[in-house]
Amino acid sequence: MGKIIEYNVTLYPAKCERGYVVTSFEIGSDIKYPRLRFEADSVKAMIVRVTAFATTHGKPCKAFIRCLASRKPAGFDKATKGLYFNLVEVEAA
Where does residue 18 fall: left (phi above 0), alpha (psi -120 to 50 degrees), or beta otherwise? Predict the structure, then answer.
């Protein structure tokens, strides 16, 4: 069991167009994105918690995770590189 670390995750809207994933967000707007603050004792436990949160959200999204500890745990960057959930390929009309 590792050290308990606090994380903050924000889900931003995403969509898949022509083989590319497009994430959109607005800076300084009143749009409220789903957020969750939680603690986990390992990177694997953190990914499980983020996956459950994004699946419950149900909309296409990209999870941006912020580690609130002074040092990131080993494997954090690799594990959080491309966390996209609920994506469906948009067919061109």
Answer: left
Q: Which of 79, 17, 10 shows the shortest CA–CA distance to 43?
A: 79
What residue ranges do the domains of the chain occupy? 5-90
pLDDT tens for the chain, residues 1 to 93: 568 999 999 999 988 877 788 887 777 766 788 999 999 999 999 999 999 999 999 899 999 999 999 999 989 999 998 899 988 654 443
CB contact at 8 A, 75 and 46: no
pTM of the model: 0.82
- Candidates 33, 80, 39, 27; CA nearest to 61 is 33
